[in-house]
Design a protein that fits this description.
- The protein has helices spanning 14-23, 53-62, 94-103, 113-125, 127-133, 143-159; strands at residues 3-7, 27-30, 37-41, 47-51, 68-71, 86-91, 136-139.
- The model has no long low-confidence stretch (mean pLDDT 91).
- Strand 3 and strand 4 form a beta hairpin.
- It contains six helices and seven strands; from the N terminus they run E-H-E-E-E-H-E-E-H-H-H-E-H.
- 42% of the residues lie in helices and 20% in strands.
- The chain is of the alpha/beta class.
- It has a five-stranded parallel β-sheet, with helices on both faces. The protein has a two-stranded antiparallel sheet with strand order 3-4.
Amino acid sequence: MAKVLLTGMSGTGKSTALAELGARGHRVVDTDSDEWNEWVALPDGSRDWVWRLDAITELLTGHREGHLFVAGCRSNQGRCYPLFDRIVLLSAPIDVMLARIVARTTNQFGKSPAERAKILADHAEVEPLLRAGADLEIDTTAPLVVVDQLERAADLVHTGQ
């Protein structure tokens, strides 16, 4: 009963992988909603949409059977890393990410030039931080292989690998 975080930049396939894992019978949670996040004021006056640590902690400590796959990418997610069995970074080349973002219909983020600029900046600044905290990195260029790799990563928790 592994608890696996799928993290990564916008357009790397977190939602797609989560949907397929759910179709295969796994418990999945997409944290990209108000249920799991809240706006906080930062010292510089800007705002950040961060995980509601109480809600995420309750989700993870209350999980008892089967694999749980949680998808998200928030600035405070590292505080919950000890509650996960695996931290998996989903990554893809920037051209693949941008092509997916342009084509997707389920999420409007990344459609404007300003949002695409943020994605490029985050790819350069945030992805290396995610990589440093990950147990495993999966290149999602070939999306059909990704879910098989995620299931294997979760199964390895039981064998101590």
